[in-house]
Amino acid sequence: MSAFRKLFQQTFIYGLATVLPRMLSFLLVPLYTAILPVTEYGAISVIFSWIVLFNVVLAYGMETAFFRFFHKEKDKNLVISTSTVSILFTSFLFFVFAYVFREGLAALSGIPIEYITYTIYILVLDALVIIPFAWLRAKEKPIRYAVLKIINVALNLGLNVFLLVFLPKFTTQNPTGFWNFIYVEGFEISYIFISMIVASAVTLILILPFYIKINYRFNKTLWKEMMHYAFPVLIAGIAFAVNETFDRILLLWMLPENSAEEAIGAYSACYKLAVFMTLFATAFRMGIEPFFFSRATHKNAPETYALITRYFVAFGAVILVTVVIFADVLKVILIRDSAYWEAMKIVPLILLANFCLGIYHNFSVWYKITDRTKFGAYISIVGAFITLAINFLLIPIMSYMGSAIATVSAYTVMMLLSYYFGQKHYPIPYAIKKMSLYFLISIAFSALSFYVFRNNYFIGIGLWIAFLTLVFIQEKQVLLQLIQFKK
Q: Full-prediction pTM beyond 0.85?
């Protein structure tokens, strides 16, 4: 159990690095929904969707390739330097071309040029910390990783609160004072982007020792091997970005102009309630990925992977039931303006979609450790095709509910495909019966509590307790072993 205890300890710390910052960031949802009209929040959500897509392009799978070759190659410093030089060069090229042609990008996307400029800065700053953060994870330094992540989002949060809440108050109280020179009325969206830029810039400054210490060597042969491994990851990443965020862009294009941004704003705000599942799945994946690679050559690796996936499904199912049952309580706390609540019906679907995505990532270990990353690209492309097809089919009929159905459909198919091909190429003895039990009962209980007995907390809490009891009985021995202090 010592290996598993170390895994869960690292996952917990990576969880802090992911969950706590994003929970701090999640506090921005009530701030934005209280200050910004639904249409403006919708406009920001569209820009954030483009940022997610281009973040993937600027990383081009190099992070995953770094992990693979860092554990595979003897000369680890060469892996570090080659990947770093690659990211530096491509980030510089992107900055030059994007900045020169920003007016054309603004005209093409319909986004104001000042927001395009802010976005360019954010994308480049984020790209420059990809390899340093990957190095911290590969070297198993989760505490330092967590501290840097927390500083980034805490600074972002603090600047948002100051610029959106306190700065207008200071200028109102003293119209001729110092703060009046900083404050610009109607500048709220720009303040949001400025906060992101400053937070990303400070993070890069704090991580500069990484760039100072490494030896800048570039091995063309190694780089080609890394790119060969990374390219399918890039394609998979683009497809994932399409699955995750492109629905906002499609909603903007396909809904009537006078209602599109309002619908996107409500959809995006309620989508945030799935963050609890997203945070769990992300924290688990970030802790588990280096562990998977480090144990790839162990004799009992398949059994280890199977057990870990079983734990993920058990905990994920508990999160699904919990959030769905208490969704209407959470909405009051996190989404202050009731104008956004019209999209609450998507919450169970988006939670389930992210649960399936988390299971997919666990099932996908087989193609990463066997260097068959092209399968990840194929599966993600199928998911993206399903996302686009269902969105195009259902948005005109069902608006954002069609997007939610598309998301859960895509991730369910991706999960099943990854399991099917994985068992053919790298058989893993998953506890399918037990995982299916957790998965199906959690869906049934969630559907009953939300769509049949919504706001009946007597029944909802009863279902919740019943499910917790089921999981505890099934996993009692393992849970007791994990919380023991002695190895």
A: no
